[in-house]
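User: Sequence in, structure out. Go.
Assistant: Echoing your sequence, followed by the structure tokens.
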Amino acid sequence: MQYGIDAPSLVFSPRNLTETFALFGPNPHAQIYAGGTASPEQNLGSLKLPPVAVSLHLVEDLRRIQYGDRFVDLGAGLPLNQILHVAKSFLNPALRQAVLGIGNNALRNLGTLGGNLCQKGFLGDIFPVLHLLGAQFEFRSQRTSRWISAAQASEAGRLTAKPGELMTKVRIPQEEWPLHFYQKIGNFRTPWDERLAMVALSRTKNGLLDAFRLIFYLPHAGILRDRALEAEFVGQKLPLGAKARDSALGHIELAMNALALPPSVFQRDRILHLTRWVLAQIQED
């Protein structure tokens, strides 16, 4: 397949955030290129570049990893493969699995954290894990900065920068989740109604379920997460009985019916199957 590429008249490659923000004033409609992992134009076999493009591949400010007492900040320009080198105590295994599930090694060397998250019209593959981990996203402009929670991004259905803004970092809290489950079905070539991702985290203590989180992501419909179910399961005796498992399936059924765009028959079947599977895996510590 041949790809038609229209060369832009101007391409800027700033080396820091100060230079980057200075470009936005005289070029308010510039298109940002920052390691995106999906592009509708690419899927159609052509890539149309705008008159003015800004490439962030040289901005070291966006590639930093900073460790706090109870969190880690990942620069939005961090290549996906570099995320795998974050200290294990800060990198939840489910996040590692989500990263490894994106394309091949070459794509993960070029694709970035922010490029995967800030896609047009939908959230990236990494987002469901970050949602369960309670991540926050920093957006900065030349004069302001703001933080967006994963819950806010989920409600909006996307992570979108305002004019003159960039996503600069992702803050991930450090929390122990001994049990973790991740499953991704389909890729960008798979029809929308046959794609989904599932993430579950749990923690047990003294034969009881101490904490439980479960999320599904359907690209065409968004996030499916029932916090009432998660709260109901806290303190449940392990192993989970049939009544508790049936209650969970009922919660998930109601959550699916509440989606603005209902899941396909295939997605509904997989969601219920994966829910049963996760609940069966949670045993006493």
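User: And one key feature?
Assistant: The longest strand covers residues 208-218.
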